[in-house]
UniProtKB/TrEMBL annotation:
It comes from Bactrocera latifrons (Malaysian fruit fly). This is Cytosol aminopeptidase. The keyword Transport does not apply. Its EC number is 3.4.13.23. Residues 227-289 form the Cytosol aminopeptidase domain. GO terms for cellular component: cytoplasm. Keywords: Aminopeptidase, Hydrolase, Protease.
Length: 290
């Protein structure tokens, strides 16, 4: 072993001893700084969920993925007045325009540090010229509004958004119907801690446009009727007995001025409805007909 090797090994040994001696001191002084940095990062990451959401529409050719899209009047006004054109620019850069039933959510699109609408959902409405389809017996424009708005409300609800405003998308009644159908969820038997918070929905309007509040109310009523049917369908059969079903229907329809006749087992026997009666014998609950 040469003299240089001996000197080098001794030097490395001294360096190692020095590092081992001062390493605990370095850890002692750096630990608070590291913890403070981690706490700061954790504070920045743990952001609040979107508090207020907005749903706007865009028209686009679904067969052309390079279509740049045309905003609805309400969406165009919001894009120009509230975002300075940034919303449409970000939407076009995020990929092809959303198709019918699809949603593109943009966050913090407004220039303010604390935006009024923390989440803006752009829904696809298809082409502007959609109309009545005689083969499917459906108005494709209204159906596109219902589907797209319902899907957007569901996605915003999953983000714990407590308030959602929806533009009319050309037909306030269809927009209201889709919104009320989208936020509905059967949670009566679910653990309260695991329930999805249901946001409030309202019509997004501007002072310079006509507000179709009557169409909005009609849409909400239509959705309420469908949601009642969904609730009765989702309820377990051991809870929704024939008697409970009849009571629910009578309470709802009689308030609307609809005459409901309740028929019991004796009436079914007089009408020779033996097939229904034989099925009902499998349960201890008496059969009831409305």
């Amino acid at each position: 072993m040469t003299m240089f090797s001996l000197v080098r090994s001794k030097s490395l040994g001294n360096v190692a001893k020095t590092i081992n001696r001062i390493l605990p001191q370095i850890r002692m002084y750096t630990s608070p700084m590291v913890n403070q940095t981690l706490q700061l990062q954790q504070t920045e990451i743990c952001a609040d969920p979107p508090t207020r959401g907005l749903i706007l529409g865009v028209y686009a050719d679904e067969e052309n993925k390079y279509d740049t899209g045309i905003l609805t009047p309400s969406a165009w006004r919001y894009n120009v007045q509230k975002t300075g054109g940034r919303m449409l620019d970000v939407l076009r850069k995020s990929g092809p325009m959303p198709k019918r039933g699809e949603t593109r959510i943009l966050f913090a699109i407004e220039p303010e540090k604390v935006p009024y609408y923390s989440a803006v959902a752009i829904v696809g409405l298809g082409k502007e010229c959609l109309g009545y389809n005689s083969y499917e017996v459906v108005d494709e424009q209204k159906e596109a509004i219902r589907r797209s708005v319902a899907n957007a409300c569901m996605e915003l609800a999953y983000l714990d958004t407590y308030s959602i405003e929806i533009e009319n998308c050309g037909h306030a009644e269809s927009a209201a119907e889709g919104a009320a159908l989208g936020i509905w969820a059967y949670q009566e038997l679910k653990d309260p801690k695991k329930r999805i918070s249901i946001p409030t929905i309202d019509l997004y309007t501007h002072k310079d446009e006509i507000c179709d509040i009557e169409g909005w109310r009609i849409g909400l009523q239509k959705a309420a009727a469908q949601n009642l049917t969904r609730q009765l369908q989702e309820m377990p059969s051991n809870m929704l007995t024939p008697t409970a079903f009849a009571q629910t229907v009578v309470e709802v329809l009689c308030k609307s001025g609809v005459n409901v006749e309740v028929k019991v087992e004796g009436w079914a026997v007089s009408q020779s409805m033996h097939a229904f009666l034989s099925v009902g014998k499998a349960s201890c609950e008496p059969p009831i007909f409305l």
